[in-house]
Amino acid sequence: MAESQHGVVLRGQLLALGFSRHAIDHRVARGRLHPVGHGVYAVGRAGLTRHGQWMAAVLSCGPGAVLSHDSAAALLGIRPDDGGDIEVTIRSGSPRRRPGIRVHRRPAMRWQEVGTRHRIPVTGPAQTLIDLATRLGRLDLERAVSEADRLGLITPPALRRALDAHAGEPGVRTLRTRLDRRTFRLTRSKLEQRFLPLAKRAGLPVPKTKQWVNGFEVDFYWPALGLVVESDGLTYHRTPAQQAQDRRRDQAHTAAGMTPLRFTHEQVRYEPAHVLAILTAVAPRLLAAAAAAGRGAATADP
Question: For the purposes of burial, counting CB atoms within 10 Å of the CB of 260, is it exposed (0-12), middle (13-18) or buried (19 or more)?
């Protein structure tokens, strides 16, 4: 018997090894081969693992077919597998209807960006993320990019460079916008120009800026309220050391009895309503506590 790939073998492989059509049919009748696609058989038993199903789908779509879209994302580990139809991309020919398989046709597919994962042909991380950008919402797309980065498949800077070779493809503009927004960084003056009016609308007094608090320089500080606000840029591809430093900063402020808040530059620039909502929720509590502390101090004076 030909060597199977995830329990799957092609009819052409069997014929190349000298099996006659009668011999193949005989093995099918005896339950040693189980048809699972066009010219594709499961070896030994009909049931296949998910990897076997993916391999069978690719093989049944002919030479050059590759796993793509949501199925590729699941194989690469950047999105969970929904267990639905398997998606395969072919370069030429008319996509044939096959039960359980959704076939895409892409004549200009860049074959140098196609790879294999667990021996299954699959679109590369950049192409997979571009395809996902045509169907995912903002948060799900950002999670997919972050997961690809975390798994070491492709970094956001490398992904941005890869988009240049895919100019005009569906999904490229959406993905580029998400990358640009998530790595967006305001200048110091622009950050203050955009954030301070939000703080005022939330009912907060004017804060001190660029102050050293608990051993760290912070963006905005309200000493009487015990409130510290910091704003991050370069959300994508922050190193573990940077992330650990951010946690230490927040922990130091919390341990000192303060309220630390952290917003991204993207949120300040593109999601001011969210920033305002958080500040508005926090401000009354801190103002009330500060007022109560002031009354207590006044009562305690002789």
Answer: buried
Which is it for strands 86-90 and 101-105: parallel, antiparallel or unpaired? parallel
Give the separation between CA 182 and CA 41, rounded to whole angstroms: 46
Q: Where are the domains of the chain?
A: 1-48, 61-182, 188-296
As to burial, measured by CB atoms within 10 angstroms (0-12 exposed, 13-18 middle, 19+ buried), residue 17 is: exposed
Give every CB contact of residue 107 below 8 A, 6+ residues apart in sequence.
Answer: 91, 92
Residue 86 backbone zone (phi > 0: left; psi -120 to 50: alpha; other: beta): beta
**DSSP 3-state of 188:** helix
Nearest to 279 by CA among 194, 180, 195: 195
Query: How much is the pTM?
Result: 0.71
The 259-264 sheet, strands edge to edge: 208-213, 216-222, 227-232, 259-264
pLDDT digits over 71-118, tens only?
999 999 999 998 889 999 998 766 567 778 899 988 877 777 788 999
Q: CA-CA-CA-CA torsion for 94, 97, 103, 104, nearest 10 degrees?
A: 40
How much of the chain is in helix, strand and coil states, percent to nearest 5? 50, 20, 30
- Chain segment 218-265, per-residue pLDDT in tens: 999 999 999 999 988 766 656 677 778 888 999 999 999 999 999 988
| 188-296 CATH | 3.40.960.10
Residue with tokens 């929904």: 82
Which one, of 174, 161, 64, lies nearest residue 122 by Cα? 64
Residues with Cβ within 8 Å of 66's Cβ and at least 6 positions away in sequence, in order, are: 58, 72, 88, 89, 109, 114, 121, 122, 123
Given strand 8-10, what is the order of strands in its sheet? 8-10, 40-43, 33-37
